[in-house]
């Protein structure tokens, strides 16, 4: 696949500033080798990997939350209140990596 970018070089920016004009971008050709088109070919692999990743994140969240709850419930009431303020549960991230890699 061939892509074209429009970029400014440092020399072009300096020359345009000296000439008091707007810089002109240069067209740069970039070539990318693509070996798989899962989204293009309507492949189910993206959805399946997203489902697995989402399931894994939900399990991780449930496990950590359950562990924290067990620790809080096993502590004495006075200490449990202090520990509850220190607990921070990270939100589950769903369908990020597989969609990014698709």
Care to describe what's here?
- This protein is mostly helical.
- The protein has 2 domains: 1-35, no CATH class; 46-102.
- Helix content is 53%, strand content 12%.
- It is built from 4 helices and 2 strands, in the order βαβααα.
- A two-stranded antiparallel ribbon has the order 1-2.
- α2 (45-74) packs antiparallel against α3.
- The mean pLDDT is 80.
Summary keywords:
102 residues, mainly alpha, 2 domains, 2 strands
List the helices and strands and how they pair.
Blueprint: E1 2-7, H1 10-18, E2 26-31, H2 45-74, H3 77-86, H4 97-101
Antiparallel strand pairs: 1-2
Helix pairs in contact: 2-3
**Secondary-structure content class:** mainly alpha
Looking across the biggest beta sheet, what order are the strands in? 1-2
The coarse overall form would be elongated
Low-confidence stretches: none
Helix content: 40-55%
Number of helices: 4
Measured distance between first and last alpha carbons: 16 Å
Instruction: Describe the sheet with the most strands.
Output: 2 strands, antiparallel
What's this entry about, in short?
This protein is mainly alpha-helical and 102 residues long.
């Amino acid at each position: 696949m061939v892509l074209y970018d429009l970029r400014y070089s440092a020399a072009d920016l300096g020359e345009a500033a000296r000439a008091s004009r707007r810089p002109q971008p240069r067209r740069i050709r970039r070539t990318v080798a693509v070996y798989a088109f899962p989204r293009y070919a309507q492949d189910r692999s993206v959805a399946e990997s997203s489902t697995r990743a989402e399931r894994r994140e939900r399990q991780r969240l449930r496990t950590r939350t359950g562990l924290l709850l067990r620790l809080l419930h096993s502590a004495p009431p006075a200490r449990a209140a202090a520990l509850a303020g220190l607990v921070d549960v990270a939100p589950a991230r769903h369908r990020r990596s597989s969609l990014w890699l698709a």
